[in-house]
Here is the input.
Amino acid sequence: MLMDFKNLGRFLAKKRLEAGLTQVDVSTSLGYDSAQYVSNWERGECPPPLNKLREVARVLKIAPEEIISFMVRETQSYLEDQLRAPSKKMKQK
Here is the structure.
């Protein structure tokens, strides 16, 4: 996993609240039958489908680049943490 979906979930929840929307509002706008999809994203269980990111941005009233930038920063942070962590092989020596 190259990103912590919990951070993405918190980001999306914050943007949803800033837009004055409920999970039901977002799920309905995206064509989902249940708010459970949005709940899963916000709890960090999974990310929104990549093919829905433009629509998610539109519904949350943010630029698509804002979501992309967040995801790139999170992925970069994760990779940097992994590169800084001592490897398991080195610990065994």
